[in-house]
């Protein structure tokens, strides 16, 4: 196939210039070599492609038909070359992210803000769903990068840690005061409405596994689809919400939310970017992960 492409390259040059000598100069070779390649192509196709004249050569009807197709092919190759050059020059590309709504808001957006400034021509798409769904999309190559909690199984993925998070229970102070007046057991949790993510969520599964040895009893569990809603519900006094402390630190410091003690505390866990473990990584993905790594190094040096 490569040899055939070489023959068509010589054919294309001769057809464009209409002269074997001019084609030889264009191809940085000799006239005999050009004539040899044209002869080989004519033999392969069992067709005369050129008519030799005193002024040079001109295409036969069959040669003109072939030239139209070859010209389209070489134009397409040149267009592809120019597009790749443009992509390289301007850093054009795509990154498809998978992330939960909460991690997108509190952790991904700051990274995207920095990345977009550095790479304004990269197109980004974001699918918000659970960690389980993100890992599934990553496995099927439907996303490039997932922002997830540290998985139990690293099979098939590479994980880049970016933060340590802590799961805590919080509530409005007014809700806790109301609980004290109507409590019928010593445990706050047995008297309260406890707001948690649904059981299909990996965060909820992690929380349940940590609390299982404690045989903690709840008065009532309200399952909520997103952590943002749990935070908002906790603020208005609907119950005690299980949230990530990192995302409500300002509210705890201002007194808008109160941390409800639990012993022992839930062990901290890691959050990071996950990519499929494969030899080829697209340039935009590489540049994003490098930015994440550089940002991590900068924080450690401070």
Annotate the secondary structure layout.
Blueprint: H1 2-17, H2 20-26, H3 31-45, E1 50-53, E2 56-59, H4 61-90, E3 93-99, H5 101-118, E4 122-128, H6 131-139, E5 145-149, E6 157-165, E7 167-171, H7 173-182, H8 188-191, E8 193-197, H9 202-211, E9 220-224, H10 227-235, E10 240-244, H11 249-254, E11 258-260, E12 269-276, H12 283-301
Parallel strand pairs: 3-4, 3-5, 8-9, 8-10
Antiparallel strand pairs: 1-2, 5-12, 6-12, 7-10, 7-11
Helix pairs in contact: 1-2, 1-3, 2-3
Give structural attributes:
22% strand, 12 strands, alpha/beta, 302 residues, five-stranded mixed beta sheet
Protein architecture, described:
- The protein is 51% helix and 22% strand.
- It has 302 residues and is α/β, with parallel strands linked by helices.
- The strands form 3 sheets. Strands 4-3-5-12-6 form a 5-stranded mixed beta sheet, with helices on both faces. Strands 9-8-10-7-11 form a 5-stranded mixed beta sheet, sandwiched between helices.
- The longest helix has 30 residues, at 61-90.
Instruction: Give the count of helical stretches.
Output: 12
Oligomer: single chain
Largest sheet: 5 strands, mixed
Helix/strand order = HHHEEHEHEHEEEHHEHEHEHEEH
Instruction: Give unreliable regions as ranges.
Output: none
Shape: rod-shaped
Using only C-alpha atoms, the radius of gyration works out to 33 Å
Mean pLDDT: 88
Strand order of the largest sheet: 4-3-5-12-6
Task: Give the distance, in angstroms, between the N- and C-terminal Cα atoms.
Answer: 57 Å
Total beta strands? 12
How large is the share of residues in beta strands? 15-25%
Residues in helices, as a percent range: 40-55%
């Amino acid at each position: 196939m490569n040899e055939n492409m070489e023959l068509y390259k010589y054919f294309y040059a001769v057809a464009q210039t209409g002269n074997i000598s001019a084609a030889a100069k264009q191809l940085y070779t000799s006239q005999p070599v050009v004539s040899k390649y044209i002869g080989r192509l004519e033999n392969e196709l069992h067709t005369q492609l050129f008519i030799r004249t005193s002024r040079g050569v001109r295409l036969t009807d069959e040669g003109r038909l072939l030239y139209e197709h070859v010209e389209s092919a070489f134009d397409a190759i040149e267009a592809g070359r120019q597009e790749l050059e443009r992509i390289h020059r301007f850093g054009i590309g795509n990154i498809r992210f998978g992330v939960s709504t909460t991690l997108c808001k509190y952790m991904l957006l700051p990274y995207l803000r920095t990345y977009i400034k550095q790479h304004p021509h990269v197109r980004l798409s974001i699918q918000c769903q659970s960690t389980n769904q993100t890992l599934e999309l990553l496995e099927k190559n439907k996303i490039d990068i997932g922002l997830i909690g540290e998985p139990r199984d690293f099979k098939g993925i590479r994980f880049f840690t970016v933060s340590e998070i802590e799961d805590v229970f919080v509530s409005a102070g007014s809700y806790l005061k109301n609980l004290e007046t109507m409590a019928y057991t010593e445990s706050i949790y047995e008297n309260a409405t406890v707001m948690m993510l649904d059981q299909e969520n990996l965060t909820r599964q992690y929380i349940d596994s940590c609390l299982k040895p404690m045989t903690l009893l709840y008065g009532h569990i309200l399952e909520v689809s997103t952590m943002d809603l749990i935070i908002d519900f906790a603020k208005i006094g609907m119950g005690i919400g299980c949230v990530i402390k990192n995302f409500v630190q300002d509210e705890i410091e201002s007194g808008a939310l109160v941390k409800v003690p639990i012993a022992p505390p839930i062990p901290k866990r890691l959050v990071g970017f996950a990519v499929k473990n494969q030899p080829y990584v697209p340039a935009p993905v590489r540049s994003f992960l490098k930015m994440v790594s550089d940002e991590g190094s900068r924080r450690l040096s401070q």
